[in-house]
Design goal:
The protein is of the alpha+beta class. The chain contains 13 helices and 22 strands. About 35% of the residues lie in helices and about 25% in strands.
Length: about 450
């Protein structure tokens, strides 16, 4: 079954486009990217001495609460062919389970809600569901970041983040999900006096100075001392699990080295690619590691053996060097990553008619301000007609149509809905319009949204 699930998953990934805000179970993305995005955002706001408000949303039993009918609807809305929807339905049809307890097992009963636990297909199905449920409320990364069911909402003011949290709650709970009131937490960077608290349906959200995000502790003051202590503790926990092997004198140092590098080292290095370590903190990690190595080799400080000899015997390099190697390795992955067009957070709908077309940008926010270029591309690839539109928090402005005349009208409704309409130039002998290209420019960065 798992082989068949992986085949179906591979085919679904070819046709379904998941939003850029989703970091979980996506190609070219990892927890390191999500942790780094949050840390660098907080660092920039601390440097600018500006407030940043973050809410970490937790969903109750996220996988077990997904309604089956909602899953089929989200798959169809994402563009999944009906035959694949029926394939997944067959996997979930007549699913039954038992519960093991102290006095034995219960009788079998039907499971009519939630995704299959342990299934190779479930993570991507959950990503499809979250992509559709959050379509109307999410903002561009890093203002909204998701890793499966872990959601981070950021804003520059408490009122905005509180409003965003309520919109997320409504969007999720009306479709069968449940936001945990007890585990959802709020953190503020560069907090000023009297900033107040964030409330969710009248209930105050717990305010914290640190939060464990994807296994990495993030502090509101920008320090990383607690994260270093957590990495040391994680290393000791891993060492204790395999201490029976590491402390056995009958086992060779080579075997101990492999076990140590497989179990202990990854626990100590997790997430440190995104942390700016001071010399003192780097020394704390190395001291803890040397204690583990000395215990493993049966050597004490009374034996007066140098640290370099201990590392050489265990075939283990300095931990500080390994942290730098991990940073360079991750940087290399980022540099070699395939560049793919980003999908805008603003919802873009293009409706083509025989002689005219319309474009709507729904849900535009302040970060969507900027210059948009609308270009009509013909089939011969030569003739192009274009117009520029500047979208601001107010009426959108048509800046002009260079080249051949391109009639374009622009209107703004309630300051968050930009509506464009145009007609392709009618000239005898002109090639038929093949597609429309909408480009958005934000500062010096840009992304392309192409519809053909």
């Amino acid at each position: 079954m798992k082989v068949w699930e992986r085949v179906v998953e591979a085919r679904l990934r070819k046709v379904v486009e998941i939003c850029e805000q989703q970091y979980g179970f996506m190609p070219r993305k990892s927890t390191t990217d999500a942790i780094f995005a949050l840390r660098i955002l907080m660092e920039k706001y601390r440097d600018g001495q500006r407030e940043l408000h973050c809410v970490f949303v937790d969903l109750e039993k996220a996988y077990d609460r997904v309604p089956r009918e909602e899953l089929w609807y989200c798959m169809r809305k994402s563009g999944v062919a009906e035959k694949y929807v029926r394939v997944v339905q067959d996997m979930y049809e007549r699913s039954r389970t038992v519960v093991r307890c102290a006095v034995g097992q219960t009788e079998e009963f039907n499971v009519e809600v939630g995704l299959h636990q342990g299934s190779a297909l479930s993570p991507f199905l959950f990503a499809i569901v979250m992509d559709q449920l959050s379509e109307e409320v999410r903002q561009e990364s890093p203002w909204t970041m998701m890793f499966a069911d872990d959601i981070v909402i950021c804003s520059e003011s408490r009122e905005q983040v509180e409003e965003s949290l309520e919109r997320w709650r409504f969007a999720l709970e009306r479709r069968g999900m449940k936001v945990s009131r007890s585990k959802t937490e709020y953190m503020c960077v560069n907090e000023r006096e009297g900033s107040g608290a964030v409330r969710l349906q009248g209930e105050e959200v717990k305010k914290v100075q640190e939060f464990k995000h994807l296994g990495s502790t993030v502090q509101s003051n920008g320090e990383c001392g607690k994260e270093v202590k957590k990495r040391v503790q994680a290393g000791w926990n891993g060492w204790r699990k395999v201490s029976g092997v590491l402390c056995d004198r009958k086992i060779s140092a080579r075997i101990k080295e492999k076990v140590y590098r497989t179990v202990v080292r990854p626990a100590m290095l997790y997430g440190l690619e995104t942390v700016s370590l001071r010399k003192r903190q780097e020394s704390e990690l190395e001291v803890a590691e040397l204690k583990m190595l000395r215990f493993s080799l049966g050597v004490t400080r009374l034996d007066r053996i140098r640290n370099e000899y201990i590392r050489g015997t265990a075939h283990v390099g300095r931990l500080g060097d390994k942290v730098r190697e991990a940073r360079l390795r991750w940087f290399g992955h980022v540099q070699r990553r395939e560049r793919v067009p980003l999908r805008a957070s603003a919802r873009l709908d293009i409706h083509t008619a025989l002689r005219s077309s319309t474009l709507s940008l729904k849900g535009t926010h302040k970060e969507h301000e900027g210059l948009y270029s609308v270009r009509l591309r013909t089939r011969d690839g030569i003739t192009e007609h274009s117009a520029y539109v500047y979208v601001k928090d107010g009426p959108a402005v048509v800046l002009g149509a260079p080249g051949s005349p391109l009639h374009l009208e622009c209107s703004d409704v309630n300051r968050d809905y930009v509506f464009l309409s145009w007609e392709p130039p009618s000239a005898e002998g002109a090639s038929p319009v093949q597609g429309y290209v909408i480009e958005s420019y934000h500062d010096i960065n840009f992304y392309h949204i192409t519809h053909t």
